[in-house]
Amino acid sequence: NDENASNSAQLLDENLLQTNHWFYSNDDYNSLHLPTIGKAKFLGNQYVADEQKVYQLFSSGFKEIKEVNAQSFVVINENFSKDKERVFYRGIAIYKADPATFEPTKYNFAKDKNAVFVDYRMIENTDKDSFEIIDEIYSKDKNKVYRYTEKVEGANPKNFQIIGESEIGKDDSHLFWNGEILQEADYKTFKVISYNLAKDKNHLYWENKIVNIDVKTFHDLGCNYVKDKNGIYFLKNNGLNNLENADPKTFKILGCDDDGYFAEDASNYYRYENLAKERNIPQKYINQASSKW
Fold this sequence. Notes:
Blueprint: H1 2-7, E1 9-13, E2 16-19, E3 22-25, E4 31-33, E5 41-44, E6 47-49, E7 54-58, E8 61-64, E9 74-75, E10 80-82, E11 87-89, E12 92-94, E13 103-104, E14 109-111, E15 116-118, E16 121-123, E17 132-133, E18 138-140, E19 145-147, E20 150-151, E21 161-162, E22 168-170, E23 175-177, E24 180-181, E25 191-194, E26 197-199, E27 204-206, E28 209-211, E29 219-222, E30 225-228, E31 231-236, E32 239-242, E33 252-257, E34 260-264, E35 269-271, E36 274-276, H2 283-286
Antiparallel strand pairs: 1-2, 2-3, 3-4, 5-6, 6-7, 7-8, 9-10, 10-11, 11-12, 13-14, 14-15, 15-16, 17-18, 18-19, 19-20, 21-22, 22-23, 23-24, 25-26, 26-27, 27-28, 29-30, 30-31, 31-32, 33-34, 34-35, 35-36
């Protein structure tokens, strides 16, 4: 009957459940009550709307999108939406975008009849005819290279490219990190090791800063652990951290994931750069570790 239908649960997508006057996410702490559920609708990509308001589900919960015309609101994709007056990036209005001609292109980039955008920001003064997306962060036209919306000073757009899966770029004469020329780098011997790590014949670079290590005996162990002739180190935001108690001969990486970065030697366990008890090491790594007892 109608009463049973109104109280039945409906799975809208893998993250969103509707039942009676409530929408629930797969996180029990996130829910949304809409008294006008009969007029509410699921728009896809975790958007819910009634006749007056539009909501989007984020990891922190449901968020009402402000300054929106609910009746003309449409979802374009998981990042972009629009109504008859405005375009939105994940609920943030892009005031200079034209809804009638707006279209996503690649990654978080989009365009309309007048301009090019990345997320909710307009890239000023681009040459639209020659504009090209390089990756999620970088783009270029015939005149400039851009990192998000900012011009990369000194970059040659004719041959600028990103090296591997990193934020390190190069043109015919310079290396760039985070959109700035890496002044100390030796162009001919420069090599990217991982997303945040690179080296040349003179230096080791971590997040575009030189770290104090013997580059001739440097070896990358994985999971942000490195070594040279003097010891074992862990790399993080503040740079190089010495594992003073580590035994280089028996040091071994156990693994790294959302729980942390883990290693061992013959005597100790390590979590990041710190000594750790066995109870602080995930069981999946204990199973592959050498016995300390």
